[in-house]
TrEMBL record:
Signal peptide: none annotated. It comes from the Eukaryota. It is a multi-pass membrane protein. This is Ionotropic glutamate receptor C-terminal domain-containing protein. GO terms for cellular component: plasma membrane. Keywords: Cell membrane, Glycoprotein, Membrane, Receptor, Transmembrane, Transmembrane helix. InterPro entries: Insect_Ionotropic_Sensory_Rcpt. The lineage of its organism: Eukaryota, Metazoa, Ecdysozoa, Arthropoda, Hexapoda. PANTHER family: IONOTROPIC RECEPTOR 20A-RELATED. The chain crosses the membrane at residues 320-340.
Length: 355
């Protein structure tokens, strides 16, 4: 977006642009940013892109008017600790597991009663010999076997789904959960004033988890969380170097809870000759709605590229309603067919006796 604005400004003011590469790396980020500030103060560089959040006062650096506000977010490494024990219980909800346990206990009780009948001769005389008993038992057996088969298939399908996408422990989704985890945060010295504006409790928690860049340079890139603006965080998430090919997933994710919304402005050098004209140009660009359309189109493209899989979760009793309806429908059809057969048999017997 900033490169697009720079291209528009180039044609608007009919000037040549010489780009200066800051060559930022993990080991020299702070030094290069201080060097850029010195270049702006001395007038060696006219404008700094992309937009930045600049809070220092009494400097020779000019700050353009703010027309864009961006949220600060945490880019957090995903958990790599397996969660296989919990996965074995996740496919079914507590209600479904309760129903299954009740069914197994009832089945064991019926088996125990059958064994007692077999060993107690006194109970044999009371055994029911009605033809209805055998028919009902067969229908119940078919229903139980069908339900067991579908539940086993559903369990195996859910286990496969969780092993593919949810085999690791759940990642923090709120700041409170993040502070309870053991994940550290990389906070350079120049970000200390911004962290101090997050609130007393949040700032204290960040200072507890703080890791300075010189210590972070000797650590793996995906071991610590980092504070970025949302566009920068989206760019980092899309980078190929943070994709784990062995696990088939990205190593980082954006914490859904925002930290703060900050103004973003272009930093202007001391001797920038088009300061007033550039600010008017930026104002016209934003008032025309061009940048809003550009940002919206870019976000839509990112959303299309970043199609993530979200697991539906465990199997609940509500998901078993179609199965219960199928069983009820099958039982009704069986009863109707059995009733019609009995009725036709009785009619034939009655007609045979009459004639």
């Amino acid at each position: 977006m900033d490169a697009y604005i720079l291209t528009l400004a180039k044609f608007r003011f009919k000037c040549d642009i010489q780009l200066v590469n800051m060559a930022l790396k993990r080991s020299n980020a702070l030094q290069r940013m201080e060097w850029m500030q010195e270049q702006l103060e001395t007038g060696a560089i006219d404008i700094h892109m992309p937009r930045a959040h600049f809070t220092r006062k009494n400097t020779a650096i000019g700050v353009s008017n703010t027309y864009e506000w961006e949220p600060l977010v945490l880019v957090v490494p995903k958990s790599d600790k397996p969660n296989l024990t919990n996965i074995m219980l996740q496919p079914f909800s507590v209600e479904v597991w309760s129903v299954l346990v009740c069914y197994l206990l009832t089945k064991q009780f019926v088996n125990l009663v059958s064994i007692m009948k077999h060993h107690c001769g006194r109970l044999r005389a009371g055994t029911l010999t009605s033809r209805w008993t055998g028919s009902i038992a067969k229908v119940a057996t078919v229903g139980v076997q069908l339900t067991s088969f579908l539940l086993i298939e559903a369990y195996l399908a859910k286990i496969t789904e969780f092993l593919l996408y949810c085999r690791f422990r759940a990642d923090p989704q709120t700041l409170e959960e993040f502070f309870q985890s053991d994940i550290l945060v990389v906070i350079p010295e120049y970000m200390d004033p911004i962290v101090g504006t997050f609130g007393l409790v949040v700032a204290a928690n960040f200072r507890t988890k703080c890791v300075r860049p010189e210590d972070f340079s000797s650590m793996p890139a995906s071991c610590c969380a980092r504070i970025h603006t949302l566009p920068r965080a989206e760019y980092i998430i899309r980078m190929a170097k943070y994709f784990d090919a062995e696990l088939g997933r990205k190593q980082l994710y954006i914490l859904p809870e925002y930290l703060k919304t900050i103004p973003m402005s272009y930093l202007l050098g001391r001797n920038f000759p088009f300061k007033n004209s550039f600010e008017l140009f930026i104002l016209h660009v934003y008032e025309s709605g061009l940048m809003e359309l550009y940002v919206k189109a870019q976000r839509n493209d990112v959303a299309m590229m970043e199609r993530n899989f979200y697991s539906k979760g465990w199997l609940t009793l509500g998901d078993l309603v179609p199965l219960f309806m199928l069983m009820a429908g099958g039982s009704c059809v069986s009863i109707i067919a059995f009733t019609l057969e009995m009725f036709s048999t009785r009619v034939k017997r009655f007609v045979g006796l009459k004639y």
